């Protein structure tokens, strides 16, 4: 293993990079306590002159934070659990089960990753509105008052399956020895038992990695959530609520409030990453191993 002659250079690069990554979050946090006269000035200061705790009180009052948090938590946790379940099941089937067309199905899944998400906005919305036997719809999806588009299911179902998640779990499950699976089959274990008792526990690093990606992406989802918000305002999530706060009030007076709302919204993401970070690197490395 080669040793650098100037180890301090590595520490310097890491230190500078860390400061560059952390500084925007510190600026957001301290700005959330500033008053309007401190923000609209050319004399920039990181720390506020006085901590305006009323900014957080105003945010909770103006945004109905309890509703926004409830919707975001329910939707994000539900989507994360569904993605973990569907991705692991599909990854196991595409790796350890032998059936005709397996490779073609996997190529089709990879192909779906090449399409931009906004391409599916109109089809997904149409499906949610005309979902059979939902929201007063008949068996043909007609005659109702909005179908699933008026419930939280509209924010969950379109994201329940992830092409990237299936790819990641397949690559990780490939590292599990086939002999272990075959030994369990010889002992009479069913495929469901093999999956839950052997495969699932061994995929913890990959599951944690996928959970982090899915949670962050879904927590910050805005375009689709805004579209559903136009159908039912009670389905607003935190990103939509923050945008509405910025739009309805004077922008010159709401910068601190917006930063306060952003600071609150970052907390769940930070906690999830802090809890799962020890599996992150291991999952990313092992998922790239080929057969």
From TrEMBL:
Keywords: Cell membrane, Membrane, Transmembrane, Transmembrane helix, Transport. It is found in: Cell membrane. It comes from Novibacillus thermophilus. Belongs to the binding-protein-dependent transport system permease family. GO terms for biological process: transmembrane transport. InterPro entries: MetI-like, MetI-like_sf. The chain crosses the membrane at residues 7-26, 73-94, 106-131, 151-173, 194-216, 257-276. Residues 69-276 form the ABC transmembrane type-1 domain. PROSITE patterns: ABC_TM1 (PS50928). This is ABC transporter permease. It is a multi-pass membrane protein. One of its GO terms (cellular component) is plasma membrane. Pfam families: BPD_transp_1 (PF00528).
């Amino acid at each position: 293993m080669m040793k650098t002659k100037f180890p301090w250079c590595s520490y310097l690069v890491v230190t500078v990079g860390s400061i560059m990554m952390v500084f925007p979050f510190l600026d957001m946090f301290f700005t959330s306590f500033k008053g309007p006269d401190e923000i609209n000035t050319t004399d920039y200061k990181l720390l506020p002159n006085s901590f305006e705790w009323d900014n957080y009180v105003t945010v909770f009052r103006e945004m109905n934070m309890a509703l926004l948090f409830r919707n975001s938590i329910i939707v994000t946790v539900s989507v994360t659990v569904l993605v973990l379940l569907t991705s692991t099941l599909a990854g196991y089937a595409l790796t350890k089960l032998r059936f005709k067309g397996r490779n073609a199905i996997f190529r089709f899944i990879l192909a779906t990753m090449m399409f931009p998400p906004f391409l599916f906005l109109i089809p997904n919305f149409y499906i949610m509105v005309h979902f059979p036997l939902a929201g007063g719809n008949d068996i043909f999806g007609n005659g109702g008052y909005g179908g699933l588009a008026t419930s939280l299911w509209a924010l969950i179902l379109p994201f329940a399956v992830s092409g990237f998640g299936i790819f990641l779990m397949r690559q990780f499950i490939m590292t599990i020895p086939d002999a272990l699976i075959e030994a369990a089959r010889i002992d009479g274990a069913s495929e469901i038992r093999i999956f839950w008792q052997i495969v699932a526990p061994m995929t913890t690093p990959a599951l944690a990695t996928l959970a982090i990606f899915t949670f962050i992406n879904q927590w910050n989802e805005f375009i689709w959530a805004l579209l559903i918000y136009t159908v039912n305002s009670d389905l607003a999530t935190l990103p939509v609520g923050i945008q509405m706060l910025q739009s309805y009030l004077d922008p010159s007076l709401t910068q601190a409030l917006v930063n306060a709302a952003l600071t609150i919204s970052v907390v769940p993401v930070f906690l999830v990453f802090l809890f799962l970070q020890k599996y992150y690197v291991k999952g990313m490395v092992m998922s790239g191993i080929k057969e």
